[in-house]
């Protein structure tokens, strides 16, 4: 069993995020779903981005507090803006076992980087090929895969243009692609559990 902390996107801790977490639990893993918006569910991406900007550094402080009582040996996962939180913690909090990065990826070199990718840290990245947001991050995802190496890093790109396609409670949801994301994520976690 892997222990996972799964960070929500800018629409908040939606039913779709909860459902995704439940599917990972159904595969035998312990999954934590912190609510960085304290129950607020923004009605649009724009409203969610505005709330994230309004929270500023408090957004990251809430994320840090959410893992403060958890063991160091975690798999960090997140969707879109939550991916940035997951990636930051995977790269900077000692003990990380792996990272599942959904619909976003922060560069691992240059001014936006959190630092070098940790040696021997497995990662999976998932996104839709024509998603305008993920499209901006695709070069960073490819760079991460190249730097981490094929034994540790996997990049999966799915047909479609929907951002947050993995969230069953939102209009962009793609059930078929989400099922594949979950299957690949569960396989990733199972491999970590076997290490």
Question: Could you characterize the architecture of this molecule?
Answer:
- The structure is a single chain.
- The protein has 195 residues and is an alpha/beta fold.
- It has a single domain, classed as Rossmann fold.
- Helices cover 42% and strands 15% of the residues.
- The protein is built from six helices and six strands, in the order E-H-E-H-H-E-H-E-E-H-E-H.
- It has a six-stranded parallel beta sheet with strand order 2-1-3-4-5-6, with helices on both faces.
- The radius of gyration is 15 Å and the shape is globular.
- The mean pLDDT is 96.
Keywords:
195 residues; alpha/beta; 6-stranded parallel beta sheet; 15% strand
Q: What's the arrangement of secondary structure elements?
A:
Layout: E1 3-7, H1 15-26, E2 30-32, H2 45-55, H3 57-67, E3 75-79, H4 81-92, E4 98-102, E5 123-128, H5 132-148, E6 153-158, H6 175-193
Parallel strand pairs: 1-2, 1-3, 3-4, 4-5, 5-6
Organism: Crossiella cryophila
InterPro entries: AB_hydrolase_fold, Dienelactn_hydro, Dienelactone_hydrolase-like
Protein name: Dienelactone hydrolase
Can you identify the CATH superfamily? Answer: Alpha/Beta hydrolase fold, catalytic domain
General form: globular
CATH fold-level label: Rossmann fold
> What class would the helix/strand composition place it in?
alpha/beta
Please outline the major beta sheet.
6 strands, parallel
Secondary structure: helix percent: 40-55%
Count of all domains: 1
InterPro entries: AB_hydrolase_fold, Dienelactn_hydro, Dienelactone_hydrolase-like
GO molecular function: hydrolase activity
Domain Dienelactone hydrolase: 4-190
Organism: Crossiella cryophila
